[in-house]
Amino acid sequence: MSELAPVSADFTLSSIDPQSTAGIPDKKRAAKQLATVGEEVALLQERLFAESKFGGTRSVLLVLQAMDTAGKGGIIRHVVGGVDPQGVHIHAFKSPTDEEKAHDFLWRVRNQLPHPGIIAVFDRSHYEDVLIHRVRGFSTPEAIEERYGVINEFEREVVASGTVIIKVMLHISSDEQKSRLQERLDRPDKHWKYNPGDVDERMHWDAYQEAYQIAISRTTTEDAPWHVIPANHKWYARWAVQQLLLDALTKLDPQWPVADYDVEAEKVRLAAT
Q: Taking a C-beta distance cutoff of 8 angstroms, is the pair 170, 72 a contact?
């Protein structure tokens, strides 16, 4: 897991190669592991869910942040999609509604936190309020600086409540994003995925890289560290995020609940029917 170790506070985003596939030799091996490990993840998730039905309070929150086209949807389909849907909560954070704007920026995030036994996935998250706000000037520099500390305290509280937070930035290159956007334009079956606004955001590429650098450095903590995953190869990013999810669930080590009834007596009763 050394290749997937969390970043340090003094890391540099530019030093991470989006093309890297460290830790797994090739796409074929990754696909095989994705299927095998998927079964392990599904079993652990079921145990976590079952545990919650008998008083368990633990849960998992997977935060996915990235530039457009980096593969968040593929992670959700191919990694999280393999577990029982009743134990998963997925929420995509779009532009805030008028109601959400009437509250502090974490209000809508708190409403989507996982209940006990649940794996929640945030497709974008509260980090939008320090990323796009910094790049686009939607908030003052002073407000953004304050939010880093607010986020750290918020995540500390979430972890203390029994939720493991896995924060992932899917790191792609500008050239790779351009190629993926071009594919969406070239294929009619992908036109629905194309958003002209994505090109507008590409015009601020360097500013976004700087915003990510600052945000990750300020908010990678012992409670909720960041993982920057090279994502030019979709198969690698899926494998890597699955490894992080497996590691988190394995450390939780949820157990099947012990029956609160007499199993042998129930066998006798059932046989008599």
A: yes
Alpha helices in 106-140 (DSSP H): 107-110, 128-136
* pTM recorded for the entire structure: 0.94
Query: The tokens of 29 are what?
Result: 């091996």
pLDDT digits 0-9 by tens, 39-95: 999 999 999 999 999 999 999 999 999 999 999 999 999 999 999 999 999 999 998
Task: Return the ∠ at Cα 54 (arms to 160 and 39), rounded to 5°.
Answer: 80
Specify the CATH number for the domain of residue 202.
3.40.50.300
Q: How many domains does the chain have?
A: 1
Instruction: Kindly report the backbone phi and psi dihedral angles of residue 206, in degrees, each rounded to the nearest multiple of 5, phi listed first.
Output: -60, -40
What are 27's two structure tokens? 């796409």
Residues 6+ apart with CB under 8 A from 97: none
Find the angle CA(42)-CA(110)-CA(169) to the nearest 5 degrees.
Answer: 60
Longest pairwise C-alpha distance within the chain: 73
Q: What is the DSSP letter of 113?
A: P
Q: Residues near 105 by Cβ (< 8 Å), separated by ≥ 6?
A: 96, 126, 129, 147
Residue with structure tokens 């009437």?
A: 102
